[in-house]
Amino acid sequence: MKNSIRGPWVVMGDFNNVLAMNERIGPEVTDSEVREFQECVDFCGLCDIPPQGAFFTWTNKHEIGDLKFSRIDRILVNDSWLLESPNTITMYHPKGVFDHFPCTMNLTSDVGQRKRCFKYFNMWGKDPEFLTTVQDI
User: Is 12 exposed, middle or buried, given 0-12, 13-18 or 19+ CB atoms closer than 10 A?
Assistant: First the structure.
């Protein structure tokens, strides 16, 4: 069951977890930690705004050999947000004195059209009129 909160909304912050297996350099990412976070994001009807600038958003700032990077800070939005602000861009800047990389969110409309998250629900394929509707559109 999906969350039914209406209206555009955005969630941003330090989630202390990665959303994909390739979002950490250092300790191995486990399938269960990624799966649980992905299920939570899906349940809430959210989609990750892809980053521009730095990919990793956190570092332990240790010496080479013990240096770790992760993408644990992110901006998640729902479909309503994407419809109202399709050009939203997140920019992660080079790290400063803190262990998290600073992030800015740009909402200007003069940026090229962004791709929207594609969502498909298996129940649609069970509707006898589904293929006809897709062909018509």
Answer: middle
